[in-house]
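This part of the workshop introduces the protein records we will be handling. A record pairs a protein's sequence with a compact description of its fold. Backbone structure tokens are a discrete shorthand for how the chain folds in space. The question running through the whole workshop is how a given chain folds. The record below serves as our worked example for the rest of this section.
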Amino acid sequence: MGYAAQLTGKERRKARFNAIASAWCGCVSELMLDGNAIIILYITMLGGDDTFSMFSTSITGIAYVLLLIPSAGLSDRIGLKRSNTIACYVGAASFVGLALVPLAGPAARYLAIGFIFLYCLSRPLYVSVWFPLLDNFLRPADRGRFFSRMRFSYMILNTLLFFGLGLVMGKNPPVWILQVSIAIGGLLVLGRLYFMNKLPVDPKLGTSASYDLKKAFDISVKNAPLVGFSIYSCFLSAAVCSTLPLSIIYLKNHLKVTADIIMIITAVSMAALIVGYYFSGTLLRKLGTKRMVVLIHVTYMLVPFGLFFCNNNQTGTVIAIAALQFVYNYNFACFNVLFASEMLALARPGNKTMAMAFCNTFSSGGAAMGRIVTSLLLGSGMLASEWMFRGTKICYFQSMFLIYSFSAALCLLLLFLVPAVVPRHEDYYEPN
């Protein structure tokens, strides 16, 4: 019997509330960075170009690839709570520093990237303790509902915040509004620390000065279903993860949509996350993982294909882009709930910290690679700035959307690696 089953119903409810409250506090800074318009607008105001803006959204993935697995070893060595304390203090300080970079003058955009990178260094350590902490009070039957409710609630909060900010900003907002917003996001990370310190931890976990990182990694590598799901998540993330931030850059720098409209569109697309997180738990129970992952994949193919046809700044086109962002974020919410639920299901007991770090490393590595490649394509000029398709002028942004759609289609071949799609294997291997 797991530790979660030993807790009373009241203790589990209290732990779920504290976990959700910690997500309310911590998600503001994360959502600002992960494709939200605020950081992109901020970098642009500091003098950064399209490549600079897109690269800023890829740093999280780079940090995950480099540090998630070592962070898992560190958190098992020094303890989950202590690791989280370090991560939260570094994250809060980084975002406050990011808010102050305009004081540096011409070097501001470079310092901004530096503080973003410092913040991203704290995220792998936080992620390496988050899921193991949840596993202390979440029973298998509670996982889908918990992740759905948690993300649904924090997306309501963030949608209201960003929608209100869009109304306040106006068409050409002063940089101080973004500075205050970023600083508040950083200070809220300390609220995450407060609530996560209240979560129960299995006394048997403790700390392990003799933690064998190599052995834990070896166990994860030999877990074939975990490896298969991780590889699938990696390539799908690489194919489509740049869709949302690139569409924001497309609106801002190519279609010349004003900042207030972009913030409102961002708030509307975040509303999709609310709807997605609200229904994803129910969809997962009714459709099952197999059908849901196929539906999510097909949707990921269709959204960038739809963006390919959006080629002007007319009201109808802007509404179409907002609608496609809505669909993308709804789909993203469903995939996040499915991903978290599957990751907990595939992690072997006794090796959960490393297994989750392993899976997240692959997924984040794919996302980082996708956004780095997008940054390089934007900055190198490898794609034609314009070309004609049936009498219609196509720009390089639209070319990128078409590449994303085609890449997602190729990733259909990897669906057979998902354990829910092929749950049983009859492996055969005859070496030389």
About this structure: The chain has 16 helices and two strands. The domain at 7-198+211-417 is CATH 1.20.1250.20 (Growth Hormone; Chain: A;). The beta strands are 386-389, 392-395.
